[in-house]
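Supplementary Methods S3. Complex input for the glutamic acid-bound model.
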Amino acid sequence: MPPPVFRFAPSPNGYLHLGHAYSALLNADLARASGGTLLLRIEDIDRTRCRPEFEQAIYEDLAWLGVAWDGEVRRQSDHLELYRSAVERLAARGLVYPAFESRAEIARLVAAQDQVAEWPRDPDGAPLYPGIGQRLAAVERAELIAAGIPYALRLDMAAALALAGELSWRELGSGPGGEAGTIGARPEAWGDVIVARKETPTSYHLSVVIDDALQGVTEVVRGADLFWSTSVHRLLQHLLGLPPPVYRHHALLRDAEGRKLSKSTGATGLRELRAAGVTPAEVRTMVGLAAPA
Ligand code: GLU
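Predicted complex, serialized as structure tokens:
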């Protein structure tokens, strides 16, 4: 068996905190213990929230932590054409459709539906897309496009599922409910997900599966908040003919009140900890990792 390939894939939309440190150190430990490699990927497709100073801080904070990566850093914003061509492949098979509504319009529609009966939510709690774009007549759709109305491209989930059939993934970690082993994918729980956003020709789900495959990643180690996203990743891998890695979702670190750490959690920010004189070895202890052998 070739040595495993791991990756740490932060988004530069804030400073790294203890939760990121845990994920990065766990990836680095697993890579070292298995004689594998660790890659670093900057997931910066969201141009409104990502900033160069956050990216710079990622390099500094990882260097301080002692997390070294192999090879060149891959920055997603450098590969938009690649993602665009993958979306075109899906479009050529009739698997995506344009959706023109704004978030506010979708929220209004869903609120109206909620009056009748509770509208279904995805595993993150967001309402499923009500499918309006799909029901547009071809001529209406063409008119909106010609008028320059921006649109996202959504996956026709029913058509995609009909092609893919049952899918599963190998889980080495644990999910929100402690699941491990072979997990049945449930992409339908997400509805018609966005594959290309209005402002960028890709989405988190699409770029992550393309990059993991292109970079030869064999083991994805990431937080349990992304456990059920793996359902969508398995479906896109199937549709695009990409090999699935194995997954190891890890528990999320929580703050004293039991809340998931967020980018704004100042007290757990690695820069704040460093300024307060905390050492990288102490960070390992704080996140519950043993000293390296
Ligand atoms: N970029 C994502 C984040 O920072 C992680 C994506 C992944 O590991 O699949 O939350």
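The domain at 1-72+253-293 is CATH 3.40.50.620 (Rossmann fold). Residues 18-34 form the longest helix (17 residues).
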